[in-house]
Specification:
Length: about 100
């Protein structure tokens, strides 16, 4: 991002939060970052996706997720992969595991 002119505090502000896999902490952070003070939230885990999606039902923040094996199975309003039937403020991508290779 720096190579394209995006540096923290210049064109953008970056804040990092980590719940350390603790659900109550994740929910507290999610409520804080979806109160309208952050225009975009990026999450990288199923737990973070679920916590932020649950706190962001009013859509005050654009939510981009990644690092989620089964986005429709996360229960956040994504009907199925490739469907546009989802909350308009929520987007991202699944990182599907090669189950056949893992089982071998």
């Amino acid at each position: 991002m720096t190579e394209r002119g995006y540096r923290d505090g210049d064109k953008i502000r970056l804040h990092r939060f980590s719940a350390e896999a603790d659900l109550p902490t994740a929910n507290t952070i999610a409520k804080q970052i979806t109160d309208g003070s952050y225009p975009m939230v990026i999450t990288i885990s199923t737990l973070s996706l679920q916590a932020v999606a649950g706190a962001n039902t009013a859509g005050r923040a654009t939510h981009v997720f990644g690092g989620v094996t089964d986005p429709p199975g996360a229960g956040v309003g994504i009907e199925k992969l490739g469907s546009l039937n989802k909350p308009k403020y929520l987007t991202g991508f699944g990182t599907f595991q090669p189950v056949d290779k893992i089982l071998r």
